[in-house]
């Protein structure tokens, strides 16, 4: 039996990529996983990449959890409120919130020749807006709406998917500042949530083999990369840890959590 049977999770931005992998990692431990995304089966695709929120939910269920799809654009606060309200109305609890949704990646598929940009002053200003509205703000708003339920039940885990770009000067101004803001948000939220038994962490994955990365595989060294589901296993391990509060307010890395909790990637050699 999975370690998260009876637990309820909400994973934002889970039609594909890291978000989908997180949902699967929670699902294989038996959790009920609500997944949000803008791409629906039969609807207009939001990117040229495969994946829809209903497909993710079905795969969660196939792995032994219970997947529930919610179409949601987290740039719209009301849609966010309705998504969280649905989770709470149907389950009367919320144990894990994973803020994964992000914006500002549109240049990977909208034809923008971003590699020609010679500095932040040559990049479109709306890239900053996308990262902060669909990323930082969306993480904040979803946390605000979810926190009241976690505080009332006296437990919960909030994970903001972040990046080591937060501490790098060469990560790009918009991206680096947005990820630094995400990390600082977690530290401040953790301070206020600690007395209520709710943990908040920033998670740094390594290089993840998402659909976008595999599409441009010739530009990456994938020898030390992670599957999206490995990121999910990291969060599942945190969610199952009765002493997870020791991590609150901190940055945690998937590779280090793998060593601490003893989980491996889906394609790891047997016995590793």
UniProtKB/TrEMBL annotation:
Database matches in PROSITE patterns: ADH_SHORT
One protein family per Pfam: adh_short
Coiled coil regions, renumbered to chain: none
Entry-linked SUPFAM superfamilies: NAD(P)-binding Rossmann-fold domains (SSF51735)
InterPro entries noted in UniProt: NAD(P)-bd_dom_sf (IPR036291), Sc_DH/Rdtase_CS (IPR020904), SDR_fam (IPR002347)
PANTHER family for this protein: DEHYDROGENASE/REDUCTASE SDR FAMILY MEMBER 1, DEHYDROGENASE_REDUCTASE SDR FAMILY MEMBER 1
Family statement: Belongs to the short-chain dehydrogenases/reductases (SDR) family.
Protein name: NAD(P)-dependent dehydrogenase (Short-subunit alcohol dehydrogenase family)
Organism: Kribbella steppae
């Amino acid at each position: 039996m999975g370690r998260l049977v009876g637990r309820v999770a909400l994973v934002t931005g889970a039609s594909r990529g890291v978000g989908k992998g997180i949902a699967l990692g929670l699902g294989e431990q038996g959790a009920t996983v609500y997944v949000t995304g803008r791409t629906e089966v039969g609807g207009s695709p939001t990117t040229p990449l495969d994946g829809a929120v209903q497909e993710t939910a079905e795969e969660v269920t196939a792995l032994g959890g219970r997947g529930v799809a919610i179409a949601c654009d987290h740039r719209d606060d009301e849609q966010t409120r309705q998504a969280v309200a649905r989770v709470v109305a149907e389950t009367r609890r919320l144990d894990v919130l994973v803020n994964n949704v992000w914006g500002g990646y549109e240049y990977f598929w909208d034809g923008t020749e971003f590699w020609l940009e010679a500095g932040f002053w040559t990049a479109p200003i709306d890239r900053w807006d996308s990262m902060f509205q669909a990323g930082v703000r969306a993480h904040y708003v979803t946390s605000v709406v979810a926190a009241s339920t976690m505080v009332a039940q006296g437990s919960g885990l909030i994970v903001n998917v972040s990046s080591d770009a937060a501490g790098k000067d060469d990560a790009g101004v918009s991206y680096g500042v947005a990820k630094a803001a995400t990390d600082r948000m977690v530290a401040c939220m953790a301070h206020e949530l600690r007395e209520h038994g709710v943990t908040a962490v920033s998670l740094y994955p390594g290089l993840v083999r998402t659909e976008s990365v595999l599409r441009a595989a010739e530009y990456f060294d994938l020898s030390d990369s992670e599957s999206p589901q490995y990121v999910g296993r990291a969060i599942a391990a945190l969610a199952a840890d009765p002493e997870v509060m020791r991590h609150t307010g901190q940055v945690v890395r998937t590779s280090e959590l793998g060593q601490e909790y003893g989980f491996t990637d889906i394609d790891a050699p047997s016995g590793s």
